Amino acid sequence: MNSTTINKKISVEPTAIKVWAESRTIYIELTDGRIVGFPADRFKILKNATTVQLKEVKLRLNGFALRWENLDEDITVPGIVAGNFQLPY
Question: Which secondary-structure segment (H or E) carries 52?
């Protein structure tokens, strides 16, 4: 009898493995394979950012947060997934 043990890291909070910007939409790919996109204009600082500035987004805190160093802005991935935006449509 063969058996295989797979060690899987179980995360309580959603985390991202990739982030990118296309035009004024920010996309994150989550560790579970989902891709979530949101309009940059739903956040005060991002609303005033140029498309070039939006593309400078990086993952931080092991995929728990998005960081725009040039804008001094941080947004949590669980907050995005939960739909916690600063501004209405």
Answer: helix 51-54
7 is a domain residue: no
Give percent of the chain above pLDDT 90. Answer: 81
If you average pLDDT over residues 21-26, what whole number do you get?
98
Question: Does residue 1 lie in a domain region?
Answer: no
Contact (CB, 8 A) for 78 and 52: no
Residue 48 lies in a domain: yes
In a domain, 22, yes or no: yes
Q: Are 84 and 13 in contact (CB under 8 A)?
A: no
Total domains in the chain come to 1
Please give the model's pTM, rounded to 2 decimal places. Answer: 0.83
Q: What pLDDT digit, counting tens, does each position of 39-68 carry? A: 999 999 999 999 999 999 999 999 999 999
What CATH number is attached to the domain comprising 72? 3.30.2020.40
For residue 59, what are the CA distances in angstroms to 7, 17, 81? Answer: 24, 8, 15
